[in-house]
Protein backbone atom coordinates (compact mmCIF):
# COMPACT_ATOMS: atom_id res chain seq x y z
CA UNK A 1 0.00 0.00 0.00
CA UNK A 2 1.15 3.59 -0.56
CA UNK A 3 2.70 5.39 2.34
CA UNK A 4 2.72 9.16 2.87
CA UNK A 5 5.11 11.32 4.83
CA UNK A 6 4.22 14.74 6.21
CA UNK A 7 7.62 16.35 5.82
CA UNK A 8 9.53 19.13 7.61
CA UNK A 9 6.75 20.30 9.89
CA UNK A 10 6.56 21.06 13.59
CA UNK A 11 4.40 18.50 15.33
CA UNK A 12 2.23 20.22 17.91
CA UNK A 13 0.13 18.17 20.32
CA UNK A 14 -1.73 19.05 23.49
CA UNK A 15 1.43 18.58 25.52
CA UNK A 16 4.48 19.35 23.38
CA UNK A 17 5.94 20.79 20.20
CA UNK A 18 8.85 19.32 18.23
CA UNK A 19 10.27 19.04 14.71
CA UNK A 20 9.37 15.67 13.17
CA UNK A 21 8.08 13.92 10.08
CA UNK A 22 4.95 11.79 10.28
CA UNK A 23 4.65 8.55 8.30
CA UNK A 24 1.16 7.35 7.41
CA UNK A 25 0.24 3.83 6.33
CA UNK A 26 -3.17 2.18 6.08
CA UNK A 27 -5.14 5.18 7.39
CA UNK A 28 -3.03 5.27 10.57
CA UNK A 29 0.02 7.03 11.93
CA UNK A 30 2.83 4.50 11.52
CA UNK A 31 5.84 6.44 12.76
CA UNK A 32 6.90 9.87 14.01
CA UNK A 33 10.56 10.74 13.64
CA UNK A 34 13.34 12.41 11.68
CA UNK A 35 14.07 11.99 7.97
CA UNK A 36 11.28 9.53 7.27
CA UNK A 37 10.63 8.38 3.71
CA UNK A 38 7.55 7.10 1.92
CA UNK A 39 5.86 6.90 -1.48
CA UNK A 40 4.35 10.39 -1.35
CA UNK A 41 5.24 13.59 0.48
CA UNK A 42 3.15 16.37 1.99
CA UNK A 43 4.97 19.63 2.59
CA UNK A 44 4.66 20.99 6.12
CA UNK A 45 7.59 23.42 6.02
CA UNK A 46 6.76 26.46 8.17
CA UNK A 47 3.58 24.83 9.49
CA UNK A 48 2.34 22.98 12.56
CA UNK A 49 1.27 19.34 12.24
CA UNK A 50 -1.69 19.00 14.59
CA UNK A 51 -4.42 16.44 15.32
CA UNK A 52 -7.50 17.09 13.18
CA UNK A 53 -10.05 19.28 14.90
CA UNK A 54 -13.09 17.66 16.49
CA UNK A 55 -16.24 19.76 16.78
CA UNK A 56 -18.24 18.18 19.62
CA UNK A 57 -21.52 19.94 18.84
CA UNK A 58 -23.39 20.27 15.52
CA UNK A 59 -26.95 20.03 14.18
CA UNK A 60 -26.83 19.01 10.52
CA UNK A 61 -30.18 18.61 8.71
CA UNK A 62 -31.89 18.82 12.10
CA UNK A 63 -35.69 19.19 12.10
CA UNK A 64 -36.23 22.10 14.49
CA UNK A 65 -38.70 24.93 15.13
CA UNK A 66 -40.90 24.04 12.18
CA UNK A 67 -38.11 23.73 9.64
CA UNK A 68 -34.93 21.73 8.98
CA UNK A 69 -31.37 23.03 9.37
CA UNK A 70 -30.05 23.82 5.89
CA UNK A 71 -26.53 22.48 6.35
CA UNK A 72 -26.35 18.93 5.03
CA UNK A 73 -24.03 16.18 6.21
CA UNK A 74 -22.15 16.61 2.93
CA UNK A 75 -21.70 20.38 3.04
CA UNK A 76 -21.16 20.38 6.79
CA UNK A 77 -18.36 17.80 6.83
CA UNK A 78 -16.76 19.42 3.78
CA UNK A 79 -16.89 22.94 5.26
CA UNK A 80 -15.44 21.52 8.48
CA UNK A 81 -12.52 19.93 6.61
CA UNK A 82 -11.74 23.24 4.85
CA UNK A 83 -11.19 24.79 8.29
CA UNK A 84 -9.16 21.91 9.78
CA UNK A 85 -11.94 19.91 11.47
CA UNK A 86 -11.83 16.19 10.62
CA UNK A 87 -14.61 14.94 12.89
CA UNK A 88 -17.85 16.29 14.26
CA UNK A 89 -20.34 14.95 16.75
CA UNK A 90 -23.93 15.61 15.73
CA UNK A 91 -27.07 15.56 17.86
CA UNK A 92 -29.69 12.89 17.04
CA UNK A 93 -33.24 13.91 17.89
CA UNK A 94 -36.01 11.33 18.30
CA UNK A 95 -38.70 11.43 15.62
CA UNK A 96 -42.48 11.29 16.10
CA UNK A 97 -42.34 7.70 17.39
CA UNK A 98 -40.00 8.76 20.21
CA UNK A 99 -37.68 5.83 19.57
CA UNK A 100 -33.97 6.31 20.23
CA UNK A 101 -32.93 3.32 18.13
CA UNK A 102 -34.98 4.51 15.17
CA UNK A 103 -33.52 8.01 15.51
CA UNK A 104 -29.96 6.68 15.38
CA UNK A 105 -30.80 4.57 12.33
CA UNK A 106 -32.43 7.60 10.71
CA UNK A 107 -29.26 9.64 11.33
CA UNK A 108 -27.20 6.83 9.74
CA UNK A 109 -29.54 6.77 6.75
CA UNK A 110 -29.16 10.53 6.24
CA UNK A 111 -25.45 10.83 6.99
CA UNK A 112 -23.82 7.69 5.57
CA UNK A 113 -24.04 8.53 1.83
CA UNK A 114 -23.01 12.13 2.41
CA UNK A 115 -20.22 12.47 4.94
CA UNK A 116 -16.79 13.57 3.69
CA UNK A 117 -15.11 12.88 7.05
CA UNK A 118 -15.84 10.96 10.23
CA UNK A 119 -18.71 11.68 12.59
CA UNK A 120 -20.21 10.53 15.88
CA UNK A 121 -23.54 11.19 17.55
CA UNK A 122 -24.99 12.32 20.84
CA UNK A 123 -28.62 11.37 21.56
CA UNK A 124 -31.22 13.83 22.87
CA UNK A 125 -33.49 12.68 25.71
CA UNK A 126 -36.66 14.76 25.32
CA UNK A 127 -39.05 12.87 27.59
CA UNK A 128 -39.06 9.92 29.95
CA UNK A 129 -40.70 6.48 29.90
CA UNK A 130 -39.78 2.83 30.13
CA UNK A 131 -38.90 2.41 26.49
CA UNK A 132 -36.49 5.36 26.62
CA UNK A 133 -34.93 3.80 29.73
CA UNK A 134 -34.49 0.53 27.81
CA UNK A 135 -33.37 2.07 24.54
CA UNK A 136 -30.61 4.09 26.18
CA UNK A 137 -28.77 0.78 26.50
CA UNK A 138 -29.30 0.14 22.78
CA UNK A 139 -27.86 3.57 22.01
CA UNK A 140 -24.71 2.83 24.03
CA UNK A 141 -24.41 -0.54 22.24
CA UNK A 142 -24.74 1.36 18.94
CA UNK A 143 -21.77 3.59 19.87
CA UNK A 144 -23.63 6.60 21.25
CA UNK A 145 -22.39 7.15 24.82
CA UNK A 146 -23.70 10.66 25.55
CA UNK A 147 -27.23 11.95 26.10
CA UNK A 148 -28.32 15.56 25.88
CA UNK A 149 -31.12 17.08 27.95
CA UNK A 150 -32.79 20.35 26.99
CA UNK A 151 -33.69 22.41 30.07
CA UNK A 152 -35.22 24.99 27.69
CA UNK A 153 -37.63 24.92 24.69
CA UNK A 154 -40.72 24.55 26.85
CA UNK A 155 -43.53 22.64 25.17
CA UNK A 156 -41.12 21.08 22.68
CA UNK A 157 -37.82 19.51 23.73
CA UNK A 158 -37.73 20.55 27.40
CA UNK A 159 -37.37 17.91 30.07
CA UNK A 160 -38.40 18.21 33.74
CA UNK A 161 -36.05 17.78 36.70
CA UNK A 162 -37.44 14.40 37.81
CA UNK A 163 -37.08 13.06 34.27
CA UNK A 164 -33.56 14.42 34.05
CA UNK A 165 -32.65 12.79 37.36
CA UNK A 166 -33.99 9.45 36.11
CA UNK A 167 -32.05 9.77 32.87
CA UNK A 168 -28.83 10.82 34.67
CA UNK A 169 -29.09 7.76 36.94
CA UNK A 170 -29.50 5.62 33.83
CA UNK A 171 -26.38 7.26 32.35
CA UNK A 172 -24.49 6.35 35.54
CA UNK A 173 -25.55 2.70 35.18
CA UNK A 174 -24.61 2.56 31.52
CA UNK A 175 -21.28 4.42 31.71
CA UNK A 176 -22.68 7.20 29.55
CA UNK A 177 -22.15 10.95 29.76
CA UNK A 178 -25.17 13.20 30.35
CA UNK A 179 -25.15 16.63 28.71
CA UNK A 180 -27.40 19.62 29.25
CA UNK A 181 -28.58 22.68 27.42
CA UNK A 182 -28.70 24.84 30.55
CA UNK A 183 -31.36 27.55 30.50
CA UNK A 184 -34.42 27.80 32.76
CA UNK A 185 -37.06 27.09 30.11
CA UNK A 186 -40.05 27.99 32.28
CA UNK A 187 -38.70 31.47 32.96
CA UNK A 188 -37.50 31.98 29.37
CA UNK A 189 -41.06 31.27 28.20
CA UNK A 190 -42.46 33.83 30.64
CA UNK A 191 -39.94 36.51 29.71
CA UNK A 192 -40.54 35.90 26.01
CA UNK A 193 -44.22 36.54 26.52
CA UNK A 194 -43.58 39.59 28.68
CA UNK A 195 -41.32 41.32 26.16
CA UNK A 196 -43.43 40.32 23.17
CA UNK A 197 -46.53 41.76 24.89
CA UNK A 198 -44.60 44.99 25.48
CA UNK A 199 -44.27 45.24 21.70
CA UNK A 200 -40.67 44.04 21.46
CA UNK A 201 -41.04 41.69 18.50
CA UNK A 202 -37.54 41.87 16.95
CA UNK A 203 -34.35 39.87 17.63
CA UNK A 204 -33.43 42.12 20.59
CA UNK A 205 -36.33 40.43 22.39
CA UNK A 206 -34.43 37.16 22.06
CA UNK A 207 -31.51 38.59 24.03
CA UNK A 208 -33.74 40.23 26.67
CA UNK A 209 -35.69 37.04 27.33
CA UNK A 210 -32.66 34.79 27.84
CA UNK A 211 -30.51 36.58 30.46
CA UNK A 212 -27.34 34.94 31.77
CA UNK A 213 -28.90 34.45 35.22
CA UNK A 214 -31.30 31.88 33.75
CA UNK A 215 -28.39 29.97 32.25
CA UNK A 216 -26.49 30.07 35.54
CA UNK A 217 -29.51 28.82 37.49
CA UNK A 218 -30.00 25.87 35.13
CA UNK A 219 -26.28 25.02 35.16
CA UNK A 220 -26.30 24.90 38.96
CA UNK A 221 -29.46 22.78 38.97
CA UNK A 222 -28.07 20.32 36.42
CA UNK A 223 -24.84 20.03 38.42
CA UNK A 224 -26.80 19.26 41.59
CA UNK A 225 -28.86 16.64 39.78
CA UNK A 226 -25.73 15.05 38.27
CA UNK A 227 -23.97 15.01 41.62
CA UNK A 228 -26.96 13.39 43.30
CA UNK A 229 -27.13 10.81 40.50
CA UNK A 230 -23.39 10.21 40.79
CA UNK A 231 -22.48 10.93 37.21
CA UNK A 232 -20.21 13.42 35.42
CA UNK A 233 -21.85 16.22 33.43
CA UNK A 234 -21.08 18.04 30.20
CA UNK A 235 -22.65 21.49 29.83
CA UNK A 236 -23.01 22.45 26.17
CA UNK A 237 -22.71 25.98 24.77
CA UNK A 238 -21.57 27.76 27.94
CA UNK A 239 -22.06 31.44 27.14
CA UNK A 240 -21.70 33.35 30.39
CA UNK A 241 -19.89 33.88 33.68
CA UNK A 242 -22.82 32.53 35.70
CA UNK A 243 -22.68 29.08 34.07
CA UNK A 244 -18.88 29.13 34.07
CA UNK A 245 -18.89 29.99 37.78
CA UNK A 246 -21.15 27.01 38.51
CA UNK A 247 -18.73 24.74 36.64
CA UNK A 248 -15.68 26.15 38.42
CA UNK A 249 -17.29 25.66 41.81
CA UNK A 250 -18.34 22.09 41.02
CA UNK A 251 -14.88 21.17 39.77
CA UNK A 252 -13.30 22.62 42.87
CA UNK A 253 -15.45 20.25 44.92
CA UNK A 254 -14.14 17.31 42.91
CA UNK A 255 -17.04 16.85 40.50
CA UNK A 256 -16.38 15.93 36.91
CA UNK A 257 -18.20 18.76 35.16
CA UNK A 258 -17.12 19.87 31.69
CA UNK A 259 -17.93 23.16 29.96
CA UNK A 260 -18.06 23.92 26.26
CA UNK A 261 -17.89 27.56 25.09
CA UNK A 262 -18.52 28.24 21.39
CA UNK A 263 -16.25 30.08 18.95
CA UNK A 264 -19.16 32.52 18.46
CA UNK A 265 -19.51 33.26 22.20
CA UNK A 266 -15.78 33.99 22.48
CA UNK A 267 -15.80 36.55 19.68
CA UNK A 268 -19.28 37.96 18.94
CA UNK A 269 -21.38 39.95 21.39
CA UNK A 270 -24.97 40.86 22.13
CA UNK A 271 -24.67 44.13 20.20
CA UNK A 272 -25.43 42.02 17.11
CA UNK A 273 -29.08 41.71 18.20
CA UNK A 274 -29.47 45.48 18.20
CA UNK A 275 -28.31 45.88 14.61
CA UNK A 276 -30.82 47.96 12.61
CA UNK A 277 -30.76 45.37 9.80
CA UNK A 278 -33.34 42.75 10.87
CA UNK A 279 -31.73 40.00 8.76
CA UNK A 280 -28.31 40.67 10.31
CA UNK A 281 -29.70 40.38 13.82
CA UNK A 282 -31.96 37.38 13.13
CA UNK A 283 -29.14 35.40 11.51
CA UNK A 284 -27.36 35.54 14.88
CA UNK A 285 -30.33 34.40 16.95
CA UNK A 286 -29.29 31.28 18.78
CA UNK A 287 -29.76 29.91 22.28
CA UNK A 288 -28.20 30.84 24.54
CA UNK A 289 -27.65 34.23 22.87
CA UNK A 290 -24.38 36.09 22.40
CA UNK A 291 -23.41 37.97 25.58
CA UNK A 292 -21.47 41.10 26.56
CA UNK A 293 -17.67 41.47 26.48
CA UNK A 294 -17.39 40.69 30.22
CA UNK A 295 -18.79 37.23 29.61
CA UNK A 296 -16.36 36.71 26.74
CA UNK A 297 -13.47 37.53 29.10
CA UNK A 298 -14.78 34.93 31.54
CA UNK A 299 -14.89 32.26 28.82
CA UNK A 300 -11.35 33.02 27.64
CA UNK A 301 -10.15 32.86 31.24
CA UNK A 302 -11.86 29.49 31.62
CA UNK A 303 -10.05 28.07 28.60
CA UNK A 304 -6.76 29.39 29.95
CA UNK A 305 -7.32 28.06 33.47
CA UNK A 306 -8.80 24.73 32.37
CA UNK A 307 -12.19 25.29 34.00
CA UNK A 308 -13.63 25.15 30.45
CA UNK A 309 -12.18 22.37 28.33
CA UNK A 310 -13.37 22.44 24.72
CA UNK A 311 -14.52 24.85 22.01
CA UNK A 312 -17.48 23.91 19.78
CA UNK A 313 -19.79 25.67 17.33
CA UNK A 314 -23.34 24.35 17.88
CA UNK A 315 -23.44 24.71 14.08
CA UNK A 316 -27.19 24.89 13.32
CA UNK A 317 -27.47 26.65 10.00
CA UNK A 318 -30.74 28.23 8.88
CA UNK A 319 -30.84 30.35 5.72
CA UNK A 320 -32.13 33.92 5.71
CA UNK A 321 -35.43 32.76 4.24
CA UNK A 322 -35.89 30.35 7.14
CA UNK A 323 -34.98 33.03 9.69
CA UNK A 324 -37.65 35.30 8.18
CA UNK A 325 -40.38 32.99 9.53
CA UNK A 326 -39.92 35.06 12.69
CA UNK A 327 -40.22 38.45 10.95
CA UNK A 328 -43.01 39.55 13.31
CA UNK A 329 -42.13 37.44 16.34
CA UNK A 330 -38.61 36.76 17.61
CA UNK A 331 -39.90 33.67 19.41
CA UNK A 332 -40.24 31.75 16.16
CA UNK A 333 -36.94 32.69 14.50
CA UNK A 334 -35.20 29.31 14.07
CA UNK A 335 -32.38 29.26 16.63
CA UNK A 336 -28.90 28.59 15.36
CA UNK A 337 -25.71 29.99 13.86
CA UNK A 338 -22.75 28.77 11.83
CA UNK A 339 -19.09 28.14 12.62
CA UNK A 340 -17.91 24.70 11.49
CA UNK A 341 -15.38 26.05 8.99
CA UNK A 342 -14.45 29.09 11.09
CA UNK A 343 -13.97 27.55 14.56
CA UNK A 344 -10.25 26.81 14.25
CA UNK A 345 -9.08 29.85 12.24
CA UNK A 346 -11.08 32.21 14.48
CA UNK A 347 -9.84 30.57 17.68
CA UNK A 348 -6.24 30.71 16.46
CA UNK A 349 -6.53 34.36 15.47
CA UNK A 350 -8.36 35.53 18.58
CA UNK A 351 -6.75 33.06 20.99
CA UNK A 352 -3.22 32.16 19.93
CA UNK A 353 -2.27 35.34 18.02
CA UNK A 354 -3.40 37.45 20.98
CA UNK A 355 -1.35 35.37 23.44
CA UNK A 356 -4.38 34.05 25.31
CA UNK A 357 -3.72 30.41 24.34
CA UNK A 358 -0.54 28.56 23.51
CA UNK A 359 -0.53 26.44 20.34
CA UNK A 360 -0.65 23.35 22.61
CA UNK A 361 -3.70 24.69 24.44
CA UNK A 362 -5.29 25.39 21.05
CA UNK A 363 -4.81 21.71 20.14
CA UNK A 364 -6.21 20.63 23.50
CA UNK A 365 -9.44 22.63 23.27
CA UNK A 366 -10.11 22.01 19.57
CA UNK A 367 -9.28 18.29 19.51
CA UNK A 368 -7.52 16.35 22.27
CA UNK A 369 -9.77 17.29 25.19
CA UNK A 370 -12.83 16.56 23.05
CA UNK A 371 -11.52 13.10 22.20
CA UNK A 372 -10.76 12.37 25.85
CA UNK A 373 -14.07 13.63 27.23
CA UNK A 374 -16.06 11.79 24.52
CA UNK A 375 -14.00 8.58 24.92
CA UNK A 376 -12.39 8.25 21.48
CA UNK A 377 -8.83 9.09 22.55
CA UNK A 378 -6.22 8.29 21.23
CA UNK A 379 -7.89 6.93 18.08
CA UNK A 380 -8.81 10.57 17.49
CA UNK A 381 -7.28 13.74 18.92
CA UNK A 382 -3.69 12.49 19.03
CA UNK A 383 -0.51 12.35 16.99
CA UNK A 384 0.83 9.03 18.21
CA UNK A 385 1.71 5.78 16.47
CA UNK A 386 -1.44 3.78 15.85
CA UNK A 387 -3.85 6.72 15.92
CA UNK A 388 -6.11 7.47 12.95
CA UNK A 389 -4.21 9.72 10.55
CA UNK A 390 -6.64 12.62 11.04
CA UNK A 391 -4.02 15.31 10.74
CA UNK A 392 -3.98 18.99 9.81
CA UNK A 393 -1.01 20.84 8.37
CA UNK A 394 -1.85 24.10 10.10
CA UNK A 395 -0.37 27.14 8.41
CA UNK A 396 -0.02 30.17 10.71
CA UNK A 397 0.76 32.36 7.70
CA UNK A 398 -2.39 31.90 5.63
CA UNK A 399 -4.56 35.00 5.94
CA UNK A 400 -8.09 35.26 4.66
CA UNK A 401 -11.23 37.27 5.07
CA UNK A 402 -14.19 35.16 6.12
CA UNK A 403 -17.16 35.68 3.83
CA UNK A 404 -20.28 33.94 2.61
CA UNK A 405 -18.85 34.55 -0.87
CA UNK A 406 -15.97 32.12 -0.31
CA UNK A 407 -17.03 29.79 2.49
CA UNK A 408 -18.00 26.15 1.90
CA UNK A 409 -21.16 26.07 3.98
CA UNK A 410 -24.53 25.93 2.23
CA UNK A 411 -25.58 29.08 4.14
CA UNK A 412 -26.30 32.35 2.33
CA UNK A 413 -24.51 34.39 5.05
CA UNK A 414 -21.77 33.95 7.63
CA UNK A 415 -21.95 35.26 11.21
CA UNK A 416 -18.17 35.86 11.03
CA UNK A 417 -18.50 37.90 7.79
CA UNK A 418 -15.42 40.13 7.20
CA UNK A 419 -13.39 38.64 10.10
CA UNK A 420 -9.71 38.60 9.15
CA UNK A 421 -8.11 35.32 10.16
CA UNK A 422 -4.38 34.71 10.24
CA UNK A 423 -4.17 30.92 9.99
CA UNK A 424 -5.87 28.07 8.17
CA UNK A 425 -5.44 24.47 7.19
CA UNK A 426 -2.90 24.00 4.38
CA UNK A 427 -3.80 20.31 4.17
CA UNK A 428 -6.50 18.37 6.01
CA UNK A 429 -6.06 14.59 6.14
CA UNK A 430 -8.82 12.23 7.15
CA UNK A 431 -7.51 8.72 7.88
CA UNK A 432 -4.54 9.50 5.67
CA UNK A 433 -6.46 10.88 2.68
CA UNK A 434 -5.94 14.52 1.79
CA UNK A 435 -9.48 15.88 1.80
CA UNK A 436 -8.59 19.56 1.67
CA UNK A 437 -5.61 21.37 0.15
CA UNK A 438 -5.40 25.17 0.37
CA UNK A 439 -5.82 26.67 -3.09
CA UNK A 440 -7.22 23.54 -4.71
CA UNK A 441 -10.78 23.39 -3.43
CA UNK A 442 -11.60 19.88 -4.60
CA UNK A 443 -14.20 18.17 -2.48
CA UNK A 444 -13.65 14.53 -1.47
CA UNK A 445 -16.09 11.74 -2.27
CA UNK A 446 -19.26 12.07 -0.20
CA UNK A 447 -19.80 8.86 1.76
CA UNK A 448 -16.09 8.25 2.38
CA UNK A 449 -16.54 9.34 6.00
CA UNK A 450 -17.38 6.82 8.70
CA UNK A 451 -19.43 6.72 11.85
CA UNK A 452 -17.11 6.40 14.85
CA UNK A 453 -18.67 4.39 17.68
CA UNK A 454 -17.83 5.74 21.12
CA UNK A 455 -17.77 3.03 23.80
CA UNK A 456 -19.20 3.29 27.31
CA UNK A 457 -16.93 4.76 29.95
CA UNK A 458 -15.35 2.52 32.58
CA UNK A 459 -17.19 2.39 35.90
CA UNK A 460 -14.66 4.71 37.58
CA UNK A 461 -16.41 7.41 35.56
CA UNK A 462 -19.21 7.34 38.13
CA UNK A 463 -17.00 7.88 41.18
CA UNK A 464 -17.63 10.65 43.73
CA UNK A 465 -21.31 9.91 44.01
CA UNK A 466 -23.45 11.45 46.68
CA UNK A 467 -26.17 9.18 45.37
CA UNK A 468 -24.25 6.07 46.42
CA UNK A 469 -24.20 7.39 49.98
CA UNK A 470 -27.90 8.15 49.81
CA UNK A 471 -28.75 4.65 48.61
CA UNK A 472 -26.94 3.06 51.55
CA UNK A 473 -28.21 5.15 54.45
CA UNK A 474 -27.29 4.35 58.03
CA UNK A 475 -30.20 3.45 60.31
CA UNK A 476 -30.34 5.33 63.57
CA UNK A 477 -31.51 3.39 66.62
CA UNK A 478 -33.87 5.38 68.79
CA UNK A 479 -35.47 4.50 72.08
CA UNK A 480 -39.23 4.84 71.46
CA UNK A 481 -39.81 5.30 75.18
CA UNK A 482 -37.46 8.25 75.36
CA UNK A 483 -39.81 10.71 73.66
CA UNK A 484 -40.41 13.79 75.80
CA UNK A 485 -43.96 14.21 76.99
CA UNK A 486 -46.13 16.66 75.13
CA UNK A 487 -44.81 15.92 71.65
N1 LIG B 1 -29.58 26.22 20.27
C1 LIG B 1 -29.52 26.73 19.05
O1 LIG B 1 -29.28 27.91 18.92
N2 LIG B 1 -29.75 25.93 18.00
C2 LIG B 1 -29.97 24.55 18.09
C3 LIG B 1 -30.32 24.07 19.41
C4 LIG B 1 -29.95 24.96 20.51
O2 LIG B 1 -30.02 24.57 21.65
ZN1 LIG C 1 -40.80 22.89 34.74
ZN1 LIG D 1 -28.70 23.64 23.06
ZN1 LIG E 1 -26.92 22.58 20.03
UniProtKB/TrEMBL annotation:
Residues 48-413 form the Amidohydrolase-related domain. Its EC number is 3.5.2.2. Its cofactor is Zn(2+). It is an enzyme of class 3 (hydrolase). It comes from the Bacteria. SUPFAM superfamilies: Composite domain of metallo-dependent hydrolases, Metallo-dependent hydrolases. This is Dihydropyrimidinase. It comes from Roseovarius phycicola. The lineage of its organism: Bacteria, Pseudomonadati, Pseudomonadota, Alphaproteobacteria, Rhodobacterales.
